[in-house]
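ingest -> validate -> predict -> emit
validate: passed (alphabet ok, no gaps, 451 aa)
predict: started
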Amino acid sequence: MLRTRQSSTRGALFVWVGLLTLGSGSALAIPVDSTSSLTNTTTDISKQSDLLPGGGSHPPSGGGGGGGSHPPNGGGGSHPPNGGGGSHPPNGGGGGHPPNGGGGGHPPNGGGGGHPPNGGGGGHPPNGGGGGHPPNGGGGGHPPNGGGGGHPPNGGGGGHPPNGGGGGHPPNGGGGGHPHEPPVVHNGNRVPPSHVDHINNSDRRVGDVMRHDPRVSSYVGHGGDVYRNNYRIHVEERSRSYDSCHDRYSPFYRQCWYEHHFYGFYWPFRVILDLDAYLWHPYVCWFYCDTWDDYYYRQWYGDAYDRYPELRTPFYRGGVFYPTDSLNDLLVGMGSADIDQQIGFRRAMTDTVRKVESQLSMDFNATVVLGRNDIVVSKYQLLDNSVVLEGFVNYGNNQFAFKALLDFSDIRNDVLFMPTQTTGQPSQASVIEIDRLNDRIVDLGGVIEQP
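emit:
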């Protein structure tokens, strides 16, 4: 049974799919005058298919390239408690002071070249400074609280998780790393607070800019007509079909996969029937519109549109994603994210669709080309520079649950987990695969959400 409701935020009509009840930089868009003489082209893209960080971060534990980072476990030049070169007590690196001074530090835990127990530059265990060794080394130190070049858990320059310095990795990396934002829950999905800001910024830009431009309005109106006349009926038909997936598949996943933290067909989702109301947003349009209009995207992105060719490339499989509320929130917010993150998101989404098609082709010994509404995103978790998607894929008369990690910095790090075996116990190889994926998510600052 399908139930509808009217959205109180953006006026969208939703259909609830009756599963289980779940409790669970700034935009670079530059306004362009609507009378701009920039060339406008509208292109039919329905058959196109190709898609051609900052050092010096701050708390909680990052250190831009080591030097200059701040508490609690900074790299070179950082401050207490486990600083690298030039840091201060208690485990300072070069130039630090007692009790665990770095280079030039004083007793009881010597400075440059100091020796145990808490040596400074070149010092040795337990709390060495520059070049020191475990447990609290300074520059070049090693675990657990190394300075420059140190390693986990609180390394300095070049250190690794959880509190690496320069070049460190998540959750609190140094040079090139970003401070980790404590997540919030938005419409059932875990996101950084900045993503909620991006959603609000995108909505404001639609109201302040896009809706007041006659040429944009004409393009959006045409896209809405195409959707209502050609595609909405298919979305409605799929909603009736997908409504039965929970009862059909969840007993198998509960019995065989829940213990491995893979919750296929558990998360409820809502379908957006009036998708045409959201075509003012560039990523909703990118995912679902059959035509391409340069003027529309220039009005959103300003001169960035002509600087970045990735912003001028249509989506690989237009319409392949079934329009759910979770996916829509992700798309609306991405429209106001940093341009670099948007480009990474585009590449990762395209790569993931290709991975799905490739795996289905191998598993079923066929050439699989997914059609409209074949991928359902029921839940997402947005991390600092990646996103976790959960849902299922429709192929033939069957649906297969999936979980995917999309890395915005490098698609070679993307991971798709989609077992197409829906009877019997999972293989040991599959269990190892999902364990590794979940470990990656945690390493990146995410959580493994459970029913």
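Residues 3-49+188-443 form one domain.
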